[in-house]
C-alpha cells in the first residue's frame, strides 16, 4: 500500500520560539486512510498538519529540518499553491476561511484562482456530494455554523485533493452538526478515496469513524496504531488528556479480557455474552422541593427581524419558573432559542409579548445595567467579554464602577479562588482557552449575582480543562442562588444539572431531570439529542433510570460481579 | 418608563440596514444591469455636475438622481443620514450667509455647491445600493483595477457583518457591566456623553477581536490560490466570463444621455445662473 503522507525526521521551530514545536516526527499515512490525530493542548498537532500543506515552512518561516512528502511531492520543493491541489485544510475557526460573499463563489474560489476550466463542475459536484447544493445562492453570513463548515469543506473538496485535513470539527459545532460533518467526511473518504486526517479530542467520534490514530506528545509522534488497538490503551490516553469513550471504560472494568468495543451495540453484546446483568435499579434520589422563585417568564414570545424584514418566532408563549438552588441545563439544537432565553433574562432584550421577572423585577421596568446587580450573563466566547487590558481590571470592572465598599477584597478573593493570581496582570486575550474561561467565571463571581447564566461554558476545551470548569461550576453553587447553562455537552448535563429544559419549535418541549431525559429514547430522538454513551448502553441493557456516569453504571453490576466470583 | 423591543433605531437595526444596503437585498432598478454600466452611470453623474453653474441644470440632475434613488429602493438608514446631512448643511449655509452679512447671491452660490454634492451623493447611493459585492468586485477587475483593490472591496463587504457582530457583542458587554448613570444631568447631557464614551471604548476591543479572526483568513487565501491568481490571467478570464453587454444596458446608457441632454437643454431655455446675480 502506498503512503500519501510520509514525514521523516521532521522538526520545526517557530521564529522567536525558545523550543521547537516539532521534534523529529516520523509518520506514514496510507492512501485512503481515515486518521485521527490526538494529543493534549500544545502537543504540536496543528503544526504537524500545517506541515502537510506547505504552510510550514513556506508561509511560516522558521527552522525546518527533515523531509515531508505529500502525494509524491516534497513539500520543500513545491509552493503552497502547488500543494493546495494535493492537500486541503479546514480550520477550527472555519467561518474565517470563507472569503467570498456567496456560497457558490466561495466554493469555486480555489478552482477559479487556479484557472481550471471545469471549475463549475468541480464546485457543483463538491456541493452535491456534501448535500449543500440548495445553499449555492446564499450569502455566507446567512448560514448556520454547520452549513458554514460544510461550505468550507466543499471549497477544499472542489480542488479534489488527495488529502483533507479537518481541525477539530466538534469545537465550534453542536454534536448533531459535527456528526453530519463526520458522515460527510466518511462519504468523501469512501466515494473519492480521499485520505482524511482529523484533529480530534472526542474519543467517541474517533471510535466510530477513524481507522487509525496518531498520538502526538511534546512534538513527537508517540505511536500510530489501528483504532481498536489505540483506544484500548486507556491509561496512556488519559495521561494525554483524552479519556477513553465511556463504553470502553465501562467494559474495561466489567469484562477486562474482551476486545475493545467501538459501538454501544458491541459493548452491550459483550456484556450480555459474559452473562452479566444489572442489579435492581437504584431508586432516584429524592429531589429537594424547589426553593423560592428567582426568575419567572409568563406568556413570553420573542423573535427577531431578519434582513428581509421578516420576524421569526424564536420563543412562543413560554411559561417558566426558575427556582433557588436549581442547576438548570438548557438544551436544544442551534437556533432553538437558548441564547434568546438567556438574553431575555438579562434584560438586553425585552419580550415582544409576555413578561420576564427577575427577583420580582419586571425586566421592562429597568435598564440591563440595573438588572446586572442580580443577573450575570457569560458569553460563549470568552475573548468577547474582554473589555480591559488585564485580568484584574476585567474582574474589578463591575465592583469598582459600582463603588462596592469591599471591591478590592472581592477582586483578590475571586482571583485566588479561580487560581488567576499569577495571570492577574496579563491581557486576557493572550491566555489559553481554559484560563480565559476561568477569567470569565471570575467576572461572574465578582458580580455576585442571584442568577448566573452561562452560554456553552465547556465548548472547545480539552477534557482536563473541561472537568476543571465543571468542578468550578459545582463550587459556585454556594454563592449563587440559581445557575442556568445553555449547552450541547450532554456529559455536562448528566454530571452537573438537576433540571433540564429542552427547547425546540419555539417552546419548552420537556422540563425534566437528566435521568428523565436520557431514559426517554423517543424524546431524545425527537429533539435531536445524543445522550452520553453510558446512558444509551444502560438503556440497552434494560436499566431504568439510565446511569449518568460510568461509576453509576458499574455500581449497578456490583451484585452480578460479586455473585460471579 | 417601560422598555419594549425596538425594530428600528437600535444597534440590531443599523446592522441589518447596512447589510441590506451592502448586499442589495431589496432588489431595485440597477440590479439587472451589467455592473460596469452601473459604475459608468455613476461616473457620469459624479462628473457632469461640476461642468456647470446653472441651477436649472443642477436641479434637473438632482431630480433625476432622486428618482433613481427611489427606484433603487435605498433603505431608510442611508436615506435618513443623507437627508440629515442635507438639512443641516442648508441651515448652516443660511446661518453663515446671514451672519457674514451675505445676501441672496451668497446663498445662491452656496446652494449650487450643495446641489452638486447632493447629486453625487444620490447617484452613489443609487449605484452602490444596487451592486452586490460580487458584481462590484468583478466590475472592478474587468476595468483593470489592481487585483488587490478589487479583492479588498469584496473582502471589506465580507468583513462588514463580522465587525458589526463583534461591535454588538461588545456594546452589550458595556451595557451589562459598566455602572448605570446615576443622574442624567441638565437637558440629559450625560446621556450622549455616556453613549459616546462607550462607543470610543468599544473600538479597541472590537478591532482586536476582528484582527484575531483575519489570521486564518490570510492563511486560507494563500492555500486557496489567491496569490497564484494574481500572477495568472486564466482565473480572471473565467471569473469575468459572465459579464456581457445586453440591449438593456445600452438602453440605460441611452436614457442617461437623453436625461443629461434634456437637463442642459432646460438650462439653456430657462437659465438660472448662480454667478449672474
How would you concisely characterize the structure shown here?
The complex is a heterodimer of chains A (565) and B (277). Chain A is an alpha/beta fold.
Report on the architecture of this protein.
The complex is a heterodimer of chains A (565) and B (277). Chain A has three domains: 3-241, P-loop containing nucleotide triphosphate hydrolases (Rossmann fold, 3-Layer(aba) Sandwich), CATH 3.40.50; 245-275 and 534-565, no CATH class; 293-533, P-loop containing nucleotide triphosphate hydrolases (Rossmann fold, 3-Layer(aba) Sandwich). Helices cover 38% and strands 21% of the residues of chain A. Chain A has 24 helices and 20 strands. A six-stranded mixed beta sheet of chain A has the order 6-7-8-3-9-10, sandwiched between helices. Chain A has a six-stranded mixed beta sheet with strand order 16-17-18-13-19-20, sandwiched between helices. A four-stranded antiparallel beta sheet of chain A has the order 2-1-4-5. In chain A, strand 4 (63-70) and strand 5 form a beta hairpin. Chain A is globular, with a radius of gyration of 25 Å. The model of chain A has no long low-confidence stretch (mean pLDDT 88). Chain B is mostly helical. Chain B has two domains: 1-131 and 245-277, no CATH class; 146-242, no CATH class. Chain B has helices at 11-22, 35-47, 55-71, 76-99, 104-130, 133-142, 147-177, 190-223, 226-231, 234-240, 247-269. In chain B, helix 1 (11-22) runs antiparallel to helix 7, helix 4 packs antiparallel against helix 5 (104-130) and helix 7 crosses helix 8. The mean pLDDT of chain B is 85. Chains A and B meet through helix 3, helix 4, helix 14 and helix 15 of A and helix 1, helix 7, helix 8, helix 9 and helix 10 of B.
Mean pLDDT, all residues of chain B? 85
Class computed from helices, strands and strand pairing of chain B? mainly alpha
Query: What characteristic shape of chain A results from the CA principal axes?
Result: globular
User: Which oligomerization state do the chains in this entry correspond to?
Assistant: heterodimer
Low-confidence stretches of chain A: none
Distance between the termini of chain A: 47 Å
For the sheet with most strands of chain A, the description reads: 6 strands, mixed
For the secondary structure, the number of strands of chain B is 0
> How many distinct folded domains of chain A?
3
**Overall domain count of chain B:** 2
Radius of gyration from the alpha-carbon trace of chain B, in angstroms: 23 Å
Can you count the helices of chain A?
24
Helix share of residues of chain B? over 70%
**Overall 3D shape of chain B:** flat
- What structural class should be given to the helix and strand makeup of chain A? alpha/beta
- Quote the CATH topology of the largest domain in chain A: Rossmann fold
Biggest β-sheet of chain B: count, sense, barrel?
none
Mean pLDDT of chain A: 88
Strand order of the largest sheet of chain A: 6-7-8-3-9-10
- Greatest contact between two chains: A-B, 69 and 61 residues
Classified in CATH, the superfamily of the largest domain in chain A is: P-loop containing nucleotide triphosphate hydrolases
Amino acid at each position: 500500500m502506498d503512503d500519501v503522507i510520509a514525514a521523516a525526521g521532521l522538526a520545526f521551530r517557530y521564529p522567536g520560539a525558545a523550543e521547537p514545536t516539532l521534534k523529529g516526527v516520523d509518520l506514514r499515512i496510507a492512501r485512503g486512510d481515515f486518521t485521527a490525530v490526538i494529543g493534549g493542548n500544545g502537543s504540536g498537532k496543528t503544526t504537524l498538519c500545517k506541515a502537510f500543506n506547505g504552510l510550514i515552512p513556506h508561509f511560516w518561516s522558521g527552522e525546518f529540518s527533515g523531509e515531508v512528502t505529500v502525494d509524491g511531492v516534497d513539500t520543500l520543493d513545491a509552493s503552497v499553491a502547488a500543494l493546495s491541489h494535493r492537500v486541503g485544510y479546514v480550520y477550527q475557526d472555519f467561518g474565517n476561511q470563507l472569503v467570498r460573499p456567496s456560497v457558490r463563489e466561495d466554493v469555486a474560489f480555489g478552482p477559479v484562482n487556479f484557472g481550471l476550466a471545469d471549475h463549475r463542475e468541480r464546485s457543483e459536484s463538491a456541493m452535491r456530494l456534501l448535500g449543500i447544493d440548495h445553499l449555492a445562492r446564499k450569502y455566507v453570513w446567512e448560514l448556520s455554523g454547520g452549513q458554514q463548515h460544510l461550505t468550507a469543506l466543499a471549497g477544499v473538496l472542489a480542488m479534489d485533493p488527495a488529502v483533507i485535513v479537518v481541525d477539530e470539527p466538534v469545537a465550534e459545532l453542536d454534536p448533531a452538526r459535527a456528526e453530519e460533518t463526520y458522515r460527510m467526511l466518511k462519504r468523501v473518504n469512501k466515494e473519492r478515496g480521499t485520505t482524511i486526517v482529523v484533529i480530534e479530542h472526542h474519543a467517541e467520534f474517533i471510535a466510530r469513524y477513524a481507522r487509525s490514530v496518531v498520538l502526538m506528545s511534546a512534538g513527537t509522534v508517540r505511536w500510530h496504531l489501528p483504532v481498536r488497538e489505540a483506544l484500548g490503551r486507556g491509561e496512556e490516553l488519559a495521561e494525554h488528556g483524552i479519556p477513553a469513550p465511556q463504553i470502553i471504560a465501562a467494559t474495561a472494568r466489567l469484562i477486562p479480557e474482551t476486545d475493545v468495543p467501538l459501538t454501544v451495540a458491541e459493548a452491550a453484546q459483550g456484556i450480555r455474552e459474559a452473562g452479566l446483568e444489572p442489579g435492581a435499579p437504584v431508586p432516584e434520589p429524592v429531589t429537594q422541593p424547589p426553593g423560592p422563585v428567582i426568575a419567572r417568564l409568563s406568556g413570553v414570545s420573542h423573535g427577531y427581524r431578519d434582513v428581509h424584514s421578516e420576524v421569526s418566532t424564536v420563543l412562543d408563549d413560554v411559561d417558566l419558573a426558575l427556582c433557588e438552588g436549581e442547576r438548570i441545563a438548557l438544551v436544544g439544537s442551534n437556533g432553538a432559542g437558548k441564547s434568546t432565553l438567556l438574553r431575555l433574562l438579562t434584560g438586553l432584550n425585552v419580550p415582544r409579548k409576555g413578561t420576564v421577572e427577575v427577583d420580582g423585577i419586571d425586566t421592562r421596568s429597568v435598564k440591563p445595567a440595573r438588572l446586572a446587580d442580580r443577573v450575570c450573563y457569560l458569553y460563549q466566547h470568552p475573548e468577547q467579554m474582554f473589555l480591559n487590558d488585564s485580568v484584574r481590571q476585567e474582574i474589578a470592572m463591575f465592583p469598582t464602577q459600582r463603588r462596592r465598599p469591599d471591591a478590592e477584597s472581592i477582586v483578590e478573593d475571586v482571583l485566588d479562588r479561580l487560581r488567576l493570581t499569577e495571570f492577574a496582570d496579563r491581557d486576557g486575550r493572550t491566555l489559553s482557552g481554559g484560563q480565559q474561561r476561568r477569567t470569565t467565571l471570575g467576572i461572574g463571581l465578582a458580580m455576585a449575582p442571584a442568577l448566573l447564566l452561562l452560554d456553552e461554558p465547556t465548548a472547545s476545551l480539552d477534557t482536563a480543562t473541561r472537568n476543571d470548569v465543571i468542578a468550578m461550576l459545582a463550587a459556585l453553587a454556594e454563592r449563587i442562588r440559581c445557575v442556568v447553562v445553555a449547552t450541547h455537552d450532554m456529559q455536562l448535563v448528566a454530571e452537573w444539572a438537576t433540571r433540564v429544559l429542552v427547547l425546540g419549535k419555539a417552546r419548552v418541549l420537556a422540563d425534566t431531570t437528566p435521568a428523565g431525559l436520557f431514559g426517554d429514547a423517543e424524546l431524545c430522538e425527537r429533539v435531536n439529542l445524543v445522550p452520553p454513551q453510558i446512558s444509551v448502553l444502560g438503556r440497552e441493557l434494560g436499566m431504568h433510570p439510565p446511569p449518568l456516569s460510568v461509576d453509576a453504571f458499574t455500581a449497578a453490576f456490583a451484585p452480578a460481579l460479586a455473585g460471579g466470583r | 418608563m417601560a422598555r419594549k423591543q425596538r425594530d428600528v433605531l437600535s444597534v440590531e437595526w443599523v446592522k441589518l440596514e447596512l447589510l441590506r444596503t451592502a448586499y442589495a437585498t431589496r432588489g431595485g432598478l440597477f440590479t439587472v444591469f451589467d455592473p460596469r454600466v452601473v459604475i459608468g452611470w455613476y461616473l457620469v453623474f459624479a462628473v457632469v455636475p461640476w461642468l456647470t453653474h446653472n441651477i436649472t441644470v443642477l436641479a434637473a440632475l438632482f431630480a433625476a438622481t432622486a428618482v433613481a434613488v427611489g427606484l433603487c429602493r435605498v433603505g431608510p438608514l442611508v436615506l435618513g443620514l443623507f437627508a440629515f446631512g442635507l438639512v443641516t448643511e442648508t441651515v448652516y449655509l443660511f446661518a453663515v450667509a446671514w451672519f457674514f452679512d451675505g445676501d441672496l447671491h451668497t446663498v445662491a452660490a452656496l446652494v449650487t455647491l450643495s446641489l452638486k454634492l447632493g447629486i453625487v451623493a444620490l447617484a452613489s447611493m443609487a449605484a452602490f445600493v444596487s451592486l452586490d459585492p460580487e458584481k462590484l468586485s468583478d466590475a472592478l477587475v474587468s476595468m483593470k483595477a489592481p487585483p488587490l483593490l478589487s479583492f479588498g472591496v469584496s473582502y471589506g463587504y465580507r468583513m462588514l457583518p463580522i465587525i458589526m457582530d463583534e461591535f454588538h457583542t461588545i456594546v452589550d458587554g458595556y451595557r451589562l457591566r459598566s455602572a448605570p448613570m446615576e443622574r442624567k444631568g441638565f437637558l440629559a447631557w450625560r446621556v450622549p456623553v455616556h453613549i459616546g464614551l462607550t462607543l470610543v471604548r468599544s473600538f479597541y476591543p472590537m478591532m482586536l477581536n476582528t484582527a484575531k479572526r483575519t489570521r486564518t483568513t490570510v492563511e486560507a487565501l494563500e492555500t486557496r490560490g489567491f496569490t497564484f491568481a494574481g500572477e495568472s490571467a486564466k482565473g480572471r478570464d473565467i471569473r469575468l466570463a459572465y459579464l456581457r453587454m445586453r440591449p438593456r444596458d445600452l438602453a440605460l446608457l441611452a436614457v442617461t444621455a437623453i436625461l443629461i441632454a434634456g437637463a442642459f437643454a432646460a438650462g439653456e431655455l430657462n437659465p438660472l445662473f448662480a454667478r449672474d446675480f
